[in-house]
Amino acid sequence: MIDPELAAVFVGSTIRLAAPLLLAATGELISERAGVLNMSVEGMMLTGAFAGAVGSWATGSPSMGLLFGVLCVLPVAWLQAFLSITLRANQIVTGIGINILVLGATTLGYRALFGSRSRAEIPGLDKWAPPGLADIPVLGEHVFHQTWLLYAAAVLIFAVSWTLRATSVGLAIHAAGVAPQAAANSGLPVNRIRYGAVLFTGFMSALAGCFLSIGDIHTFTEGMTSGAGYLAIAAVIFGNWRLGRTLLACCLFGAATALQFQLPAMGVEIPNALLIMLPYVLALLAVGGLVGRQIAPAALTQPYKGH
Amino acid sequence: MSASLDWKRLQPGPALWVSVASVAGALVAGAGMVMLMGVPVGDAIAAFADGAWGSPYALAASINRALVLMLVGLGFVLAERANLTNVGGEGQIAVGGIAATALCLWPPVASLPFGLAFIVPMLGACLAGAFWAGIAGVLKVKVGTNEVIATLLLSFIAIWMVYGSVQSESLLRRPMTTSATLPESLEIPVATQLPLLLGDPSVPLHAGLPIGLVLAAVVAVVLGFTVLGLKLRAAGLNARAARRAGMAIDRLSIGVLCAAGALGGLAGACMLQGEQYTLKAGFSSGYGFDGLVVGLLARGSVTGVVAGALLFGFLRSGGINMEMVAQVPTALVVVIQGLIIVTLAGAALGIQRMEGRHA
Fold it and tell me: Among the four B124, B127, B192, B339, which has the fewest Cβ within 10 Å?
């Protein structure tokens, strides 16, 4: 019999670990649906994590940190959009280039600003629980008592889902990613839609990065995203470019990570390394077609030559 | 449009000028950042030069680093010819390192005669790398999985495999005599270490270097002068047409990824048997991605791979010394690399247009 408190802790930490993936993967989904494979989501998250931490540390207000994080990611997202849409550069190469650039720049910035005061505690976002739910025994404390950004993320993701399904904006994104020429013929500004999609990915990745640094552990460490952005991309593929399945994949990856902390507490001896690599193995199995044949947007990674 | 012979690519065409300008621009930007940090640029450059080529030891260390980057870069260029993007160099190095360590520490191997003691682990590392990249190849052919995603995920898995294998005594961790025993493997026996070319430990050039240079020549010849090279190009330019023409595209794709992985695995063996001698978690850190960058910059040319590998070999070694002596974080080198990739990727369309006008 599993201890209910332990189970609640597990669910709570799964949600907490999945949250940055949920945000980043939702953003990534939008730009992939519009036809841009945005490999720089890792770099955007790292920028967000760093800028969020700096903003929060400098102003003492985590909300200002969040704002600063988003503002700093937008130029990074714009660079990705400019290179891959306007200059029609290889989307994968630009993405990896931006990730390397950001890794170097944030490490430099971190050393310059914090120097020897590494691992400084940074003011973090407040925790909050929906009234009513907070009073449920066990669950209230371990599951619902979360950073408010998590609840904001849930609202945002719901809004994205509605936009994709029920609005003309969603239809335009879909058209830009599946049949850009036809979309352009019917008067849609394909490249402008794609710019918007990439900038939106930047916004969501910034929130994801801030969640890591000022939402979760209240500090910044060099290269702290350590592959989370790539996991978000894997989640989109796992999800077959559909929002519901993508979110499910994020929760699965989050649960696999949460097991690292949970299993030792339950007295199960499994090598740590196996658990750390589990999300990547799951992602590989997913992209390896164990969850059915994947159908990508038809024009994914293809630049559009018109306007 | 693109020249098949490497010497043609060395003619000062737009691509070469743009590459040189991009590297120079990134270096200038790096110097600017050094200035912003309040470190005298002269001091930083002196520390850089000292670490990169200031002594025979530093020079040899830079060349050893360049060798690893060259092997990974060759693998990238080889797969790129068939329009496959192998970003899994890091993981291929890692599995190569694991395989080489395991074989070196297996007593029957260390007692093999005629230099087989160090050759067998190298071959094992090649096989391990080939297998690792081959997974991505099989997935690509059978399921249509994008090889970029697959090789990248395989890299993350392999990096944690190294970590796991030096955590457990039943795997490769050295016997724990005290609680202070580090999570790393035993030092490999002398017989399995790569022989030093000059027999002098103060100039640590090892036998991996001539092997690597021969392989670079082989890759250049295969790509430029053989039917296989032509088939790879055909598969890369238009896989469907090549298949109609009767080429076994699937086998070709898997094969070329395996070859790329074997080169990555060999790079891991060179690092382990030539320099480090013990397997540690994170031993491959950054080498795979540097090698990937070298491959990207080369734009399909083997000469370009060699030049790029030397550039980054010196950059990294110099950067490390700059951090130790002049207190300039080595992350500066990472920024410079990022700038180079981003500008070259952005310039690709312009280069294509200029080449079109010249041709």
Answer: B127
Whether the Cβ atoms of residue A58 and residue A202 lie closer than 8 Å to each other: no
Is 1.10.8 the CATH number for A4-290? no
Tokens of B110: 């260390």
Subunit contact B334:A104, Cβ cutoff 8 A: yes
The SS3 of residue B123 is helix
Whole-number Å distance between alpha carbons of B118 and B134: 24
| Cβ distance of A284 and B329 shorter than 8 Å | no
* Each residue's pLDDT tens digit, B129-139: 999 999 999 98
Q: How far is A107 from chain B (nearest CA, A)?
A: 6
Cα separation of B144 and A103, whole Å?
31
Q: Does A38 touch chain B (CB under 8 A)?
A: no
Q: How far is A146 from chain B (nearest CA, A)?
A: 29
**Which distant-in-sequence residues (6+ apart) come within 8 Å of B187 by Cβ?**
B277, B278
Q: Is the pLDDT of residue B166 over 90?
A: no
- Chain A residue numbers touching B149 (CB-CB < 8 A): 233-234, 237, 287
Distance in Å, alpha carbon of B251 to nearest chain A alpha carbon: 18
Helical (H) or strand (E) element with B296: helix B287-297
Q: How many CB pairs under 8 A join A and B?
A: 136
Q: What separation in angstroms does the CA of A111 have from each of A57, A101, A262, B346?
A: 14, 16, 33, 29
Q: What is the distance in angstroms between the CA of the first residue and the CA of the last residue of chain A?
A: 61
Within 10 angstroms of residue A285's Cβ, the number of other Cβ atoms is: 13
Question: Is A111's Cβ below 8 Å from some Cβ in B?
Answer: yes
Cβ of B341 under 8 Å from any chain A Cβ? yes
Q: Kindly provide the ipTM of the predicted complex, given to two decimals.
A: 0.85
Q: For chain A, what is the HEC assignment? A: CCCHHHHHHHHHHHHHHHHHHHHHHHHHHHHHHCCCCCCCHHHHHHHHHHHHHHHHHHHCCHHHHHHHHHHHHHHHHHHHHHHHHHCCCCHHHHHHHHHHHHHHHHHHHHHHHHCCCCCCCCCCCCEECCCCHHHCCCHHHHHHCEEHHHHHHHHHHHHHHHHHHHCHHHHHHHHHHHCHHHHHHCCCCHHHHHHHHHHHHHHHHHHHHHHHHHHHHCCCCCCCCCCHHHHHHHHHHHCCCCHHHHHHHHHHHHHHHHHHHHHHHCCCCCCHHHHHHHHHHHHHHHHHHHCCCCCCCCCCCCCCCCC
How many residues are recorded in chain A?
Answer: 307
CA distance B275 to B273: 6
Structure tokens at B55: 């002594």
Of A160, A161, A149, nearest to A20 by C-alpha is A149
Convert the pLDDT of each residue in A38-81 to its tens digit. Answer: 889 999 999 999 999 999 988 888 889 999 999 999 999 999 99
pLDDT tens figures, A125-167? 777 777 777 777 767 677 777 788 888 888 999 999 998 888 9
Asked whether A193 and A172 are in contact (CB, 8 A), the reply is yes
Give me the pLDDT at residue B358, please.
55
Shortest Cα distance, chain A CAs vs residue B195, angstroms? 33
What is the rounded CA–CA span in Å between residue B235 and residue B230? 9
pLDDT in tens, B208-241: 899 999 999 999 888 888 888 888 888 888 777 8
Q: Is A269 on the interface with B (CB under 8 A)?
A: no
Phi then psi for residue B206, to 5 deg, are -125, 175
